[in-house]
Structure prediction request, 104 residues.
Amino acid sequence: MDYAIIRSGGLQYRVSRGDTVRVPRVGADVGEKLEIDEVLAVRKGDDLNVGTPLLEGVSVSAEVVKHGQGKKVIVFKKKRRKGYQVKKGHRQGYTELRITGISA
Prediction:
């Protein structure tokens, strides 16, 4: 099985051709094609190439499927006996990518 390990938004993902992966929000429109150059490792057949830290001349092509927001995370702060409490929510934005190919 051929796969690549890419880095996007400070996180690492193992992707293969045809996979759909959610990465932190990318500034691209829906349907737009992307080239991801931050490839850490590539496996083709029995051959595994690992970069130090990145591989040169290797890229992963992807297509933007949709943008969205994750589940809400509640942040609640309270100091007892002081009458202080704050409740905030946060929803992290994401981009869903469909991997179309790995070029080595």
Summary: The beta strands are 3-8, 11-15, 20-24, 33-36, 39-44, 47-50, 59-69, 73-79, 84-90, 93-103. The chain has one domain: 3-103.
